[in-house]
Amino acid sequence: MRTLKLDFLHPFPRPHWAAWGLLAAGLGLAAWVGWQGQQAQGELDAAVAAAPQRPAAVVQRQVRAAAGEGQSAARQARQQLAVPWGDLFVRLETHRPKDIALVALEADERKPEATLTAEARSAKDMLAYVELLKGKAGFASVTLASHALQEGDPQRPLRFVLRLVWRA
After folding, report:
1. b or e along 146-161 (b: 16 or more beta carbons within 10 Å of the residue's beta carbon)?
2. Which residue range(s) make up the domain with 97?
3. Could you give the number of structural domains in the chain?
4. Which SS3 state, helix, strand or coil, does residue 114 take?
5. pLDDT tens-digit series, residues 32-88
6. Structure confidence by residue, pLDDT tens digits, 129-150
7. CATH number for the domain that contains residue 149
């Protein structure tokens, strides 16, 4: 049987000459990139120093204009949240008969107007719903904008669009 030789302190082999070449090339490239960055920074500093300085009043006007845009956006959001959406939803849901399905509601926060899309089983149900909204729901104006029979649906509902104006 052969003897087993264990060498725990074996010296590492010397690096190959190509490894030393790659290391030198990498260090040279890094130095060149750093030098180019310093050149570009110096040119930028010179251009900034040569640029005409804007008066403080112009800068303040720009800051005020930006603040004014933010305030107008906040004001618009506040107006949109101030619209009584909950009241509109409650009115529509509490005065909805079982044979009317509400499909869509599009409202404009700038005006007390809304467009309601709904479906009914018949024209009689649709007209009764319009009269109900005019009378008991408390809308200032209810107008039937359009209606059409849904041919693609097996139940063939009557889809209609109402324009609502509510009282503030």
Report:
1. ebeeeeeeeeebbbbb
2. 85-166
3. 3
4. strand
5. 999 999 999 999 999 888 887 766 666 666 666 666 677 777 777 777 666 667 777
6. 888 888 877 778 888 999 888 8
7. 3.30.1360.100
Structure tokens at 144: 């039937």
3-state SS class at 57: helix
Nearest to 99 by CA among 136, 125, 130: 125
In this structure, are strands 139-149 and 113-120 parallel, antiparallel, or unpaired? unpaired
**Residue 15 domain flag:** no
> Domain for residue 136, yes or no?
yes
Global pTM reads 0.51
60 lies in the same domain as 46: no
1 inside domain: no
10 domain-assigned: no
Render pLDDT for 4-27 as a digit per residue (tens, 0 to 9).
888 777 777 788 889 999 999 999
Ramachandran bin of 146, using left for φ above 0, alpha for ψ from -120 to 50, beta for the remaining angles: beta
Domain match, 90 and 78 both: no
